[in-house]
Design brief:
Blueprint lengths: L8 E3 L6 E8 L6 H5 L3 E13 L5 E13 L6 E15 L14 E3 L4 E3 H12 L31 H13 L4
Parallel strand pairs: 5-6
Antiparallel strand pairs: 1-7, 2-3, 3-4, 4-5
The chain binds zinc ion.
Length: 175
């Protein structure tokens, strides 16, 4: 058992029945899907408990990372700490997920090979905010209005101007 570094993959067929745990950092692993999102993940750590035996294998645990990605408001990089929890049924093939219904999250481990890196990458992406932004709602100096939904819209001085802009928006994109 490793206590300081997570394995990149786990060969489940070699595990004795019972609970097996790992905890530590994910070191030196590229996370290509986070890179595709324009981001990078540092300080990726986690803990995993894999239960094998008579029942379908179950993987439970949590992970943390610091994801650096472009802020949707000011487009400058923002570092966001993320924290994910997971409780997954391990299946050989995604088709087997149907047996558990849509509610039960699964992780696919083809031929008993659990890809820990890909699984953690999934969880980090799921834990990211939908719209990554700086905590400072004025990080762009107020140039754009991407504020919370309950933030009052700028007041128009002339209601007829507002009507004009609504009419113009009919043909094009509204915002
Ligand atoms: Zn920003």
């Amino acid at each position: 058992m490793h206590n300081d570094e997570l394995p990149a993959s786990i060969g489940m067929e070699r595990l004795a029945p019972g609970e097996h745990s790992w905890a530590g950092a994910l070191v030196g692993q590229p996370l290509p899907r986070i890179r595709d999102l324009g981001g990078s993940a540092d300080e990726v750590t986690g803990s995993l408990t894999l239960s094998v035996g008579d029942q379908r294998p179950r993987l439970q645990g949590e992970c943390q990372a610091v994801v650096t990605i472009d802020c949707e408001r000011c487009l400058a990089p923002v570092s966001i700490p993320v924290h994910g929890h997971f409780d997954l049924i391990v299946v050989d093939r995604i088709e087997q997920a149907d047996a558990y219904g849509a509610e039960a999250p699964v992780v696919v481990a083809p031929k008993g090979q659990l890809d820990v890196v890909a699984m953690l990458e999934d969880e980090i992406i799921l834990a990211l905010p939908l719209i990554p932004m700086h905590d400072d709602t004025n990080c762009d100096g107020g140039q754009r209005h991407f504020g919370p939904a309950d933030e009052p819209a700028p007041v128009r001085e002339n209601p007829f101007q507002a009507l004009e802009s609504l009419k113009r928006d009919d043909s094009g994109e509204t915002h």
